[in-house]
Protein 1
Amino acid sequence: MNSKHRIVLTDDHPIVLSGLRNLVQAEDDFELVGQALSGLAALKIIREQLPDLAVVDISMPELNGILLGRRLANEAPAVKLLVLTLHEDLAYLKQALDVGVRGYILKRSAAENLVQAMRSVVLGGLYVDPAIAHRFFDTGAKSARGGYSAVNIPQLTERESEVLKYVALGFTNKEIARRLDISAKSIETYRLRGCERLGLKTRVELVRFAAAEGWLSDV
Amino acid sequence: MNLQFTELIRNRSSARVFVIAVLIVILVPAFVFASFLAVSSARLERAQLEQNAQNKSREVAAAIDREVIAIENVLVTLASSSHLQAGDLEAFYRKAVNASRAVGVVIVLRDTQRDQQAVNTAFSFGTQLAQGTRPPRSEADEQVLRSGKPIVTNVYFGRLLNEYFVSAMVPIFVGNDLRYFLSAGVSLKRFADLVGSLSLSAEQVVNVIDRNGVFITRSLDHGAYAGKRISYLFPPDAQSVVRGTGRNGIPSHWFIRQSDLLGWRIATGVPNSVLEAPMKRAVGTLIAAGGLLFCIALGFGHIWGGRLAQSAGAFGIDRKPTREEFEVLFDSAPHGVMVADDHGRILLVNARLAAEFGYLRDELIGQQVEILLPERLRGGHAMLRQVFARDPQARVMAAGRELYARRKDGTEFPVEIGLSPIKPRGDRLVMVTVMDISARKLASQRLLATTTERDELRRRFVRAQEQERLRLAHELHDQTGQSLTAVMLEIKDIEKSAEDAHRQRFRLLRLDLEQIGQIMHRIAWELRPASIDELGLASALANYVSEWSMQCNIAADFHCGDSRIDELSQEICTTIYRVVQEALTNVAKHARTATGVSIVIARTDGWLRLTIEDNGGGFDQNVLAESKTGPNGGLGLAGMRERPMLIGAEFEVESSLGMGTTIFARIPLEARRAAA
């Protein structure tokens, strides 16, 4: 068994790629088996070489890192992926993790931490750049709350459910008032009362409830 | 229109009430004064009637007294005749017969010792007169006679002559003996004649009654009353007024006078109805005249008040214009006005209309209204006119469509036409107002063109701005970011082979560059997150919302209910992203009490609905509307409105104090836009 970890590097920026190459070649336990300047080229070379680890960028011509990850998850699930990117948006991180990427590191910390990240991932760990990791786990905790019990739905009056339905659909109070022929002030009252009964606090909660109830489909 | 009409009625009636009130104020005192005069004169008339009756009683009394005194004088003259002293009754008879004939009475000489008639001029001398009636005498009469003075008896029935009489009687002494009574029997008819000879007015009835209360005579129906006893008692006064109903059943006033000489009473009766007649007449006349006057005043006030309201106008509101004023009004109307009959003939045209169409007024009068229309519309118009004539109502002609009129020279211009049916004296006429709207149309076209151009410019500006941001962001992020990464990697490489003294400096340099990279990333992200294009709007928004939530420490929840959101055009995606961005910025800036924000995207029947709701303090929409450019976020709203407008979206903000603020954006999707 080869003791060296086989590595493929991908970046659409040649100078960055050469910088990365220097970084990897300086490490004894890494063996660079291929490099690519575009998404499709990366896909091709990874399929051929089946490396232990592929470092990919997200923003790449032809095939971006996320789509590449999705394809590799099917075609070469053994290849571990480390995303090296400029993007600090959590959205990218989430998407990347969704498609099975095992590491996410920002380019600005590459010089300092890339090698460490590569080692973590290649050894079966999970690496998220510390600069965004704390935000990711913060929101993760937040979005875990909420949710209602679908078992015990209190009875709403016909008016209340009508009003809540239109509110969930995104109608303005004025529009609802016109459709139901009641005053805009009453709409607010019906909505407050209805939401209180259901234990819903925000519009998003109401919309999710409405979607679950199937209210939104019949329009 | 209706309002003016009721106003007019109210004014007219108020003028009427006013005039009638004035008339009544004038008439009532006059009427009271007239009543006073009429009643006084009626009283005077009645007093006159009463006075006449009293005078009549006195007159009758005096006449009877004179008559009786005359008879007594004849008796006294006879009584002093020497024949009686000598006892020559036959000579006395002859003398007495002469006297009786002269005076018209029956003279009787009664022997007191034998108590029988010795001489009776009604019979020839020597006739047996045994059953002759002895005239009734009271005790007082007897004493008067013994003292040698004459008396006049009450009424008695003379059996020999079968008639009622009153006798005057004188005693005749022979020596010292009371030997005879010489009496003159006066038939009651004589008194009747006497009363009859006095001129009585028609309503007066004179009764003459003796001391025993027996009728001597009555001016009416003497035969039925003479010798009968009266049915009631007179008061003992010499002069009095008695009210009562006579035998004939007529209630009357009796004016009574007692004769001093005879003690008889003369009563002149006047029926109550006659006495009361003047007052009744006066009151009747007053009521009739007063009522008539009142009615006339009322009618007069009604008509005059109405006319007053019309001509002067109670307060100048409902005055009708005079003919001259009307002509000025008609001609100075700011639009063309004409009147046409129901056959479409022009009857009246104002100067403005004639000038607008380039005709002289006389050229138009009598023509069909179609002369003012373009040829292609004339046929259809005649039919429309008939439709209008069937149900004439004031309206704007062909509301909502464009109308064109034709000048004399054949040019056409856009018009607005108002129709008002009028109905003078049963003719059906239509007043037509013609307004030249060329200027208005031109202005609105220009405005539309300008607005379209402005919107297009704005759209281009926004697009250019977005492109520029995209370019900048790309430049910063991808190009510069990559270069920076390359530089850092290079430094790292050099750092490894460098001496220890330099290694630390390289490391610090690297850290500085890392900082720069972070800042550049931040700037690029704020300019335009690449994730919109690479990951889709939903992910980009979700990320933005959670970033914002952490930064502002306000709970924020994002829900995208549209599975096809990634099919939206880049323009729409950018707009939605920017609206959310701006809305959340506003929440952070203004909704200080907000603890939660919901962002929802949903697709319903061809619309994409974006709703952003916070639970902050909200604001009063009326207040905000007044200060659109105020420092407190007015501009924020305006900025938010701007972008959706450019992609044809509807934008609405609902807020009220204490209820938070909700922003609604309704974006038409491609299919709908194409159809619209």
Protein 2
Amino acid sequence: MKLSRLMSMTRRVLQQLKHDPRTMALLVLSPSLLMTILKYVYYSKPEVFQHVAGSMLGVFPMLVMFLITSVATLRERTSGTLERLMISPLTKMEFILGYAIAFGVASLIQATLVSSYAIWVLGLKIAGSQSALIFVAILDALIGLSIGLAVSTFAKTEFQAIQFMPAILLPQLLLSGLLVPRESMPRILSDLSNVLPLSYAIDATRKVIMGQGSIAHDCLVIGLSLLLILAAGSLTLKRQTK
Amino acid sequence: MSSAIVCKDLVVQRGTNVILKELSLTIESGQILGLLGPSGSGKTTLMRSIAGLQKIKSGEISVLGMKPGVAVLREKIAYSTQSASVYSDLTCEENLKYFASLFSRNEKTVDEILEEVDLNVVRNQVASSLSGGELSRLALATTLVGSPEILILDEPTVGLDPVLRIQLWELFNKLAAQGKTMLVSSHVMAEAEYCHGLALMRSGQILAHGTSAQLRAQTGKEKMEDVFVALVKGP
């Protein structure tokens, strides 16, 4: 791996985001809008807002980065640019890390903005620190990114890529403990929930908000699954076609 | 003179479809070989095989003495696809700077290349706003960064006006004079004139390989179009 190539890879992805201000605006602002709606939907039950808003802070980054990455890498595949990169000196590691750093920056901005907005404007009470919350959000974003990269290889069109969101992310969301506590699910579902990274993401965000327990274990699980999915994703970057 | 690219008994099969049928071809270094033939004859597959993008079923390819696709070779080879493979949401300059940064050696600066392909005026325009001709010149420009020794260009002159086409062929000749080896495909038979050597391709095989003078002498025809027809029909 060469640092200069990694940096120019990252710079290129950021430049592409810069040329697309509408996506940037939606990316950064829509979570805050959703938070506002949540706040007033549960206006009469502020304790539910506390509960749900916290989980949403873990869900947004994963959802958004999944979509952006699967469409972005699909575009690289269909436009032929990925093929050109594959016969250039750029390594797969530099390609993946370049995307991870650039989108990591985008999710840092997103998480900082939405958590600040939720805390200062909507009155979300957090017992833990905001930086821990942002840290978890970035890990979540990277999970979304790695899944997006891995599934983009199975999609031939952007329509298909988008359809992977309900197929792959929504089951995780239903099983994550966002709707019902994971302990109260049938055994098979709670076991399933235990191996899905989003469950740990939501647990970690909740722990920060309630200030209960350490998030080290959750972050470790998220980090390891991140490496695993990224490795799977890198296998989908083929230098040669049949 | 040494051979830059050697293909021997190359077979490429996709599904049950045999695309290249025991194809053999040698390209000397510093030469421009024009690959002519109708669409569907396997030109792109041959180019992708040499670039290292295509799995081959049997046969051998050697590029500068190496197997296609190995890491050392990736610093030395450039391939431009038929459709312009550039980032449509980046400007010309950003595209070029990005591709240039991937290579460790750059003899020419981005400014020089922009000048060479006549894109200086639109350097700050995003690629999606370029005209067809400008876009294919941008794609060509991105293959010129990184000082490649071997350039594989798939239909680089499609959709260009004649003046520009001649300019580009002059540029190709200049590059060849600097010792670069080029494989350029086209379905415009008239472009044969600009190449050092010609390979006429049809249904996955090389029909004939030689200089345009040799092929003319062989068939007794003057126009390249007629030469091709004569070669297809046989004696």
